[in-house]
């Protein structure tokens, strides 16, 4: 399987040095090959163990910091929201 590391890096907004591209291609190919060789699970029901019941904690409302106090630490806030730089082109 051919893996285009440059394309994956572009999608993930990563900069990979040209001398490392081949090493990443080999590593990713090995990972994909390993995943392809994993055995099939016959059913999702086999993942549950009747004797091992998961106990969930009670939901509880706990006090938190007031919004105004928290927003004092941010560089820029508008209408009670934190303003961050655009990250998607």
UniProtKB/TrEMBL annotation:
Pfam families: GatC (PF02686). It catalyses: L-glutamyl-tRNA(Gln) + L-glutamine + ATP + H2O = L-glutaminyl-tRNA(Gln) + L-glutamate + ADP + phosphate + H(+); L-aspartyl-tRNA(Asn) + L-glutamine + ATP + H2O = L-asparaginyl-tRNA(Asn) + L-glutamate + ADP + phosphate + 2 H(+). It is an enzyme of class 6 (ligase). Gene3D superfamilies: Glu-tRNAGln amidotransferase C subunit, N-terminal domain. Its EC number is 6.3.5.-. It comes from the Bacteria. InterPro entries: Asp/Glu-ADT_sf_sub_c, GatC. One of its GO terms (molecular function) is transferase activity. The keyword Zinc-finger does not apply. One of its GO terms (biological process) is regulation of translational fidelity. Keywords: ATP-binding, Ligase, Nucleotide-binding, Protein biosynthesis, Transferase. Heterotrimer of A, B and C subunits. NCBIfam families: gatC. Belongs to the GatC family. Allows the formation of correctly charged Asn-tRNA(Asn) or Gln-tRNA(Gln) through the transamidation of misacylated Asp-tRNA(Asn) or Glu-tRNA(Gln) in organisms which lack either or both of asparaginyl-tRNA or glutaminyl-tRNA synthetases. The reaction takes place in the presence of glutamine and ATP through an activated phospho-Asp-tRNA(Asn) or phospho-Glu-tRNA(Gln). This is Aspartyl/glutamyl-tRNA(Asn/Gln) amidotransferase subunit C. The gene is gatC.
